[in-house]
Amino acid sequence: MFRKHELLKELYKELGIPVKDFVANYKFNNPQIEYPLEIKKMLNQLEILDPHNFFKIRVDDKWICVDITWDMPLKKFGFVVNENWDGKSDMKLCVVPIEIIETNNPIEFKKKKICELPRHAQLERKLFLKKMTEWLDSVR
Does residue 53 contact residue 4 with C-beta atoms inside 8 Å? Predict the structure, then answer.
């Protein structure tokens, strides 16, 4: 699947803007998000780990963070939405990272990190993401 970060990254490259890839490991258990009850219950019982990709671009001799994960309709639920970005300073990272790793291939890195999770954690993550996606689709 071609993700929006990958598309934007390729557009920057076409413009000759240097790009570096990163993955932030984090947990979905963010108390700032107003999840629906079913998802809150899951997060109270489970720790959902997830690798999140973003990138940095070189602007005016400075590397700045670009993260376009969440869209405007999700702002009302507490998701970090980068609106009114000036193109010269860091975007807010859309997750609270446990660690940040630079990588040459974020998609393969993410797949590897997910495969390293215990089998039960992989299944719980898959179920959580299904529920999360259904909810996000319903509120957009």
Answer: no
